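Q: Structure tokens for this one, please.
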Amino acid sequence: MKRLFVLALTALAVAFVISSCKKDKRALDTSISAVNTLAAPLNASSINLQAGGPAVTFKWSAATAIDGGLIMYEVTFDKAGGDFSKPVYRILSDGSGVQAQATIPQDTLNKIASLAGVASSSIGTLKWTVIASKATNMQLSKISNTLQVSRPAGFAVPPTTLFLTGTATEGGTDISKAIPFKQTSAGVFELYTSLAPGTYGFTDKASGSGVKYYLDDKGVIRQGSGSVTISPAKTTYRLRLDFNVATSNVVGIQSLGLFMSAYNTEIGQLNYIGNGTWENPKIAVTFYQFSWGRDERYKFALHTTNGIEYLGSSNVNNIAPAGQPASYFYLLPVTNAQWDNTYKFDPSIDTHNAKVDVYFNTGGPYTHTAVAVN
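A: Here is the predicted structure, written as tokens:
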């Protein structure tokens, strides 16, 4: 009897809970008002965008939810004549979308301007407004402001890969044989190669679908299918392109010498053989005799149209190469100090010939080899 009484009480309790849940169940009210004031930047404001410049704060009046619940916001950008039906960019407000303001870096605004068709080093207009939303209910403000932006030189979205192609290049016009650049930092590329009479340009893909670039007559990087014409005889060059500021540096390479410290001079020259590689199959090497022993230190002297540059070790004072990792032979820009940042020949090279090769690889570190030969 007692057990039946307990079961009855339990059943009544469950029924009460279910009844309470049914009474409390209400439809979610997603009704909200649209934002009706855009406070900052003021309409028709202007800004000179700079790489890494201080962020710009966009502010507006808060929308209202009928039930007082949480509202999300997105700042929406469009071209000057757009109606926001196909905005070029949308970004959540601060606080993961809940605050009535958005702090937007100038680098992001530069990207937005680029997407809106404003070219680098030029002035254009962006249009912006705010979308307020709750659940599936989205309210586009009927108010919009314009913002005049002056874009800096450079590409807001630089390529992540770059290739050289054209009749003047080692790969010719076959786009599948386009020569890859080495990316030295974000948006910055470098290539050691030869150029013959003809034309050359750049692309971000070794295929027909790549974005094309060229250098104008002032060396500024431009997007498009233009090209540079090379008229002199075939010459070796180092090409450096910085898409962050749209600048280029094309330097002719006259020679690459093997500099031996003890003699304080170059004891041999390497010849360019293509694919970013220089070599000399036979350089006579004799270590210098000091009172304390024989000296075997060396590095490289790169003769360019801008002067001599030295390439050597990251170690100011180096050790013998035996047993050292591949990084021992990596080539880095160094000073012209006679003894610093040098390598050491293997002892087997003393009073013999050395085969010396230098590799300006686009897919890895710049490096070199030096081995004894007959």
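A few notes: Residues 2-24 form the longest helix (23 residues). Residues 1-24 have pLDDT under 50 and may be disordered.
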